[in-house]
Amino acid sequence: MEIKKIAVIGAGAMGHGIAQLAAMSGLDTVMRDINKEFVEAGMKNIRWSIGKLIGRGKISPLDGEKALKRLSPIVSLKDAVEGADFIIEAIPEKLALKQQVFKEIDESAPSQAILATNTSALPITEIAAATKRPDKVIGMHFFNPPVLMRLVEVVMGQNTNTETRDATLSLSKKFGKEPVLCNKDVPGFIANRITISGTNLVAWMVHKGEYTIEEIDAAAMYKAGMPMGTFALLDFTGLDIAYHVMKFMEEREPFFEVSPLIKAKMESGEIGVKAGKGFYNYPEKGKFVMPQISEDKSERFDPMTQTYVMTNVAAELIRNNVATAEDIDKTLKLGFNMPIGVLELADTLGIDIMVSKLHEIAAKYGEFYKPSPLLTQMVDSNKLGTKTGEGFYSYKK
Ligand SMILES: NC(=O)c1ccc[n+]([C@@H]2O[C@H](COP(=O)([O-])OP(=O)(O)OC[C@H]3O[C@@H](n4cnc5c(N)ncnc54)[C@H](O)[C@@H]3O)[C@@H](O)[C@H]2O)c1
């Protein structure tokens, strides 16, 4: 299908960035929010961003001007979706609100239009159920800021058809993005599901008194060379965002349980930098200062612990045909700026090591960490990674 007109619903942090991408890709774009001030604020952000791109020589002033001309701010939802071929929703992360808005969009949009949601964690299938076209509803999960981050997770709902999938993959490419396909509507999709699982385990370890927050963060920085530890990163991005995904996993996964440490922090409102306090203290609300942790704290904790868990979750995604190894590694590299994909790392460390570490973790922390049957099969067939020439990838010459 040919896509000529895009409607973006929501002009907030994500919506304005997505609308900017659409307009810069040469498509007629309307951006809708609930009142004039919010759409204007979105337009102001777009003008600022285009100005920056011109200033850095990324686009020409003429192209910037053309992109702005293709963009129309709008308040009426009905007018916004009229004649649209592809609609991208980026309104707050509340299922009932998204369902209501999808119902309204469905009633006014052309019958062939595709309806995409930028949800970070809500089930695509349940959003689609509010419409009479669940086959044309899909997840299109951009990363923040959409103009700069190259990754888009394209997420299939239970009823999404292949035409919708292909059109969304090709639109993502037209936007200059690198799409990955999440073939099933699993909680957390690919990116959050994998990373959150590792984070939750270390939060359990702190809860049980095995390690301190500083020991875990120090090991990540001084042993694994990460710019920031897990807990400092949670503070930086906001614990509420991670908690939201964790809660969904807890509700929908039989063996996943959010660490009491995370729950207690959420309940106390100490959700990180934006609250002035999280796992660490900050000088004032919104002011991030890197927590100072001494190197000697890094001795006890193995910073690969999260890698074992992330590999396990990734292996289950592959075994259940949710995603390919290549897309999983691409997701982690582009979505989280990881220098190496988790499965590339697993191949280097050895799949047999992964399996034995996971047995140890599962014995203490439960069923969720039990080695995936895919990993045990790999060990049985001597696919141990680089050392045997085959693992998630082939290293045979
Ligand atoms: N911020 C992120 O880092 C990030 C990353 C990926 C995905 N997401 C997802 O993107 C979505 C939007 O997040 P955000 O950070 O841009 O939120 P935001 O609060 O910055 O923006 C949401 C906007 O939607 C508007 N809105 C509310 N109801 C509306 C309606 N009925 N029609 C049109 N607009 C309406 C609000 O006025 C607001 O301007 C959420 O589902 C979120 O989970 C966010």
Which tags fit this structure?
3 domains, binds nicotinamide-adenine-dinucleotide, N-(1-d-carboxylethyl)-l-norvaline Dehydrogenase, domain 2, Rossmann fold, 8-stranded mixed β-sheet, 397 residues, 17 helices, alpha/beta
Gross CATH architecture of the largest domain: 3-Layer(aba) Sandwich
Low-confidence stretches: none
Can you identify the CATH class of the largest domain? Alpha Beta
Major sheet: 8 strands, mixed
Rounded to an integer in angstroms, the radius of gyration calculated over CA atoms is 22 Å
Question: In DSSP terms, counting alpha (H) and pi (I) runs of 4 or more, how many helices?
Answer: 17
Indicate the mean pLDDT: 96
From the helix content, strand content and strand pairing, which structural class follows?
alpha/beta
Which ligands does the model contain, each kind named once? Answer: nicotinamide-adenine-dinucleotide
Could you give the distance between the termini? 41 Å
Number of domains: 3
How would the global form be characterised?
Answer: globular
CATH topology assignment of the largest domain? Rossmann fold
* Strand portion: 5-15%
CATH level 4 superfamily of the largest domain:
NAD(P)-binding Rossmann-like Domain
